[in-house]
């Protein structure tokens, strides 16, 4: 799972009012190279919760993203490269996502988060 | 004849390791799913600007449908309830991210962030109650409600479905409309029992344009030529639902004099030698004849 997906996922447990962002527990991170596409990054930028992306990437061991961001930064190639790397090339391979409200853990195995809810959570 | 997989077992049980492998190694299935996915992408009607979008593949299985999204240059997140299917997707090194989840529990995604969604041959599963705690209506409501929320305004969801009957089709469409979607069902090749495929084409918010037309709607080339193979495969089980209905209809129609007269007229128009119509035409024969 990439941070792109992490930035979209939120805890869906019944009664939880703010399930975003899920905390990340890291056991293993892998990096995979992805073709750089500026257009995609520009299209995504407005939808990304920046603070969550910065925090998640730090948890994953990547510290290059600036604390704050604004649209004008999209003119910088350096910024785009970092954004690209954090968003698309870092994979949480093993670990867990944790609901910020309830602490419920969603295990991540082989890069796949298990978001299945128990019956009493639906 | 195999019955509908939906009636055999819950999806996470039906799509076990064996079935997941069988499913993904059949060139026939690969071909059909690719065609359905291509058509779904076409119906998504994304802006023609070469910008990759963030799409959702609901019931992504082993990634056959997602692969079409990658080929079209998009990023995608695939959701499926079957670990076995997702394992095959991993083996096949699909480019999208995979999530193990149940669409009937609602999609846990932030509002307004997804550019479009497809689902190929999956949503009809929601119509079955696989556990005592399952109530199809509640699950359909959760699914469509959450789908509507996570899509950006004006974004589309194209869901190719195999409803078991009219009631199921209306149930599914009804919940889509109640969630706030506009749109409807596009039927490709409606006159062909084998090639007939239906897609719910849903738009988040007011419709951006008129509903697209189905292929072969006006009877153009639906000769079933691409379905020469057997149709009794469980994964693409449309035959079981259509054959009995077709038979009944034919039996009824074939008996009448009107039908015979019409057929004879057709043959004449084609230039065949056809006996003249008389009072004996299509008359019932006595048993001893
Ligand atoms: C016929 S397969 C299609 C897979 C893929 N879309 C393709 O085109 O090859 C249907 C898939 O829907 C999945 N499915 C069924 N019910 C589901 C649910 N409630 N939530 C998520 N996935 C589900 C099944 O596990 C299966 O992988």
UniProtKB/TrEMBL annotation, chain A:
Family of the protein in this entry: Belongs to the TRM112 family.
The identity of this protein, by name, is Multifunctional methyltransferase subunit TRM112-like protein
InterPro entries documented for this protein: Trm112, Trm112-like
Subunit structure, briefly? Interacts with TRM9.
UniProtKB/TrEMBL annotation, chain B:
Q: Which UniProt keywords apply?
A: Cytoplasm, Methyltransferase, Nucleus, S-adenosyl-L-methionine, Transferase
Q: Give a Gene Ontology cellular component term annotated to this protein.
A: nucleolus
Instruction: Name the residue ranges with Basic residues bias.
Output: 242-255
Say which species the protein is native to: Abeliophyllum distichum
User: A Gene Ontology MF term for this entry?
Assistant: methyltransferase activity
What are the residue boundaries of the 18S rRNA (guanine(1575)-N(7))-methyltransferase Bud23 C-terminal domain, all occurrences included? 202-287
Q: What is this protein called?
A: S-adenosyl-L-methionine-dependent methyltransferase superfamily protein
Compartments (UniProt record): Cytoplasm; Nucleus
Per UniProt, residues of the Methyltransferase type domain are: 56-151
Q: An example of a Gene Ontology BP annotation on this entry?
A: methylation
């Amino acid at each position: 799972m990439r941070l792109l997906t992490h930035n979209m996922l939120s805890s869906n447990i019944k009664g939880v009012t703010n399930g975003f962002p899920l905390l990340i527990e890291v056991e293993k991170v892998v990096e995979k190279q992805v073709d750089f596409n500026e257009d995609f990054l520009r299209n995504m930028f407005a939808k990304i919760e920046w603070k969550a992306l910065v925090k998640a990437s730090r948890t994953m061991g990547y510290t290059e993203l600036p604390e704050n961001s604004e649209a004008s930064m999209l003119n910088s190639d350096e910024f785009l490269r970092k954004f690209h790397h954090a968003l698309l090339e870092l994979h949480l391979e093993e670990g867990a996502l944790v609901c910020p409200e309830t602490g419920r853990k969603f295990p991540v195995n082989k890069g796949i988060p298990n978001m299945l809810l128990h019956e009493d959570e639906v | 004849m195999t019955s509908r997989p939906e009636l055999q077992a819950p999806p996470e049980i039906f799509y076990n390791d064996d079935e997941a492998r069988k499913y993904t190694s059949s060139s026939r299935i690969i071909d059909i799913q690719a065609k359905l996915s291509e058509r779904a992408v076409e119906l998504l009607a994304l802006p023609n600007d070469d910008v990759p979008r963030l799409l959702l593949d609901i019931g992504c299985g082993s990634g056959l449908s997602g692969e079409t999204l990658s080929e079209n240059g998009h990023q995608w997140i695939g959701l499926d309830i079957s670990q076995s299917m997702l394992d095959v997707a991993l083996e096949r090194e699909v480019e999208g991210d995979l999530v193990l989840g149940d669409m009937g529990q609602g999609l846990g995604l932030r509002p307004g962030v997804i550019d479009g969604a497809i689902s190929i041959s999956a949503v009809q599963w929601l119509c079955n109650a696989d556990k005592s705690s399952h109530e199809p209506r509640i699950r359909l409501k959760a699914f469509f409600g959450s789908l509507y929320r996570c899509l950006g305004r004006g974004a589309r969801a194209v869901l190719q479905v195999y409803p078991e009957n009219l009631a199921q089709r209306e149930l599914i469409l009804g919940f889509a409309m109640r969630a706030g979607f506009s749109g409807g069902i596009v039927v490709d090749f409606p006159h062909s029992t084998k090639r007939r495929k239906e897609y719910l084409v849903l738009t988040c918010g007011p419709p951006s344009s008129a509903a697209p037309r189905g292929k072969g709607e006006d009877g153009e080339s639906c000769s079933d030529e691409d379905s020469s193979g057997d149709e009794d495969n469980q994964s693409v089980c449309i035959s079981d639902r259509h054959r009995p209905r077709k038979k009944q209809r034919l039996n009824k129609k074939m008996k009448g004099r009107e039908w015979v007269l019409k057929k004879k007229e057709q043959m004449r128009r084609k230039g065949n030698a056809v006996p003249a119509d008389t009072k004996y035409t299509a008359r019932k024969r006595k048993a001893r004849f």
